[in-house]
Amino acid sequence: MKYYLKITSLFLFLAIITEIAHAQEEVIGSAKVALKLGSSKDLSKFFHNMVELKITDDEADGANNNYSKTQAEYVLKGFFKDNPPQDFIYVHQGTSKEGLKYAIGKYTYKDNAGKAAGTFRVFMKLKQYDGSYLIDEIDFSKE
After folding, report:
1. What is the pLDDT of residue 61?
2. pLDDT of 20 above 50
3. How much is the pLDDT for 129?
4. Are strands 101-110 and 116-129 parallel, antiparallel or unpaired?
5. Suppose 134 and one of 22, 45, 48, 96 were both cysteines; which one would form an S-S bond, judging by CB atoms 3.0 to 4.6 Å apart?
6. What's the predicted TM-score (pTM) here?
7. Which residues make Cβ contacts (< 8 Å) with residue 62, sequence separation at least 6?
8. Can you tell me the distance from the alpha carbon of 132 to that of 23, in angstroms, rounded to the nearest whole number?
């Protein structure tokens, strides 16, 4: 009987771990699509209620700002309008020593002629809230 209890516990543990990993990958994958499309609305679906948003380019001072989910969506809408997406790819994903999930990507934007005009390095930090992974921080730094 103890053997069956141990086996059942092990399978339950593995199922929970698999579900958590799947939820994290869903956020990472959906965020990638939203960034490729320049959709602030779709990206903001994965924001926590408050998100740290930083956009550093030639004209901005790059100050850290904490925004509500709605405010962050509005700020990103302006960013995508000024820097229309050409492409977005992940260059690295990982987990910090503290257990936070993160992803680093490259956002390429286009000019009025539709050609690549420049890139931003994108850093996203995900945290777990009530069993779900959400974007807690997103940082765009012009390269």
Report:
1. 56
2. no
3. 86
4. antiparallel
5. 48
6. 0.77
7. 54, 55, 56, 141
8. 7
Report d(CA 122, CA 114) in Å as an integer. Answer: 21
User: First vs last Cα of the chain: how many Å apart?
Assistant: 60
Domain housing 74: 2-142
Q: Which residue has the tokens 């925004």?
A: 67
Q: Per the structure, how many domains does the chain have?
A: 1
Name residue, tokens 């992974």: 133
* Interacting residues of 136 by C-beta distance below 8 A, sequence separation 6+: 48, 51, 52, 100, 125, 126, 127
Question: What's CA 136's distance to the chain center, in Å?
Answer: 8
Question: Tokens for 70?
Answer: 């709605």
- Cα–Cα dist 75/110, whole Å: 19
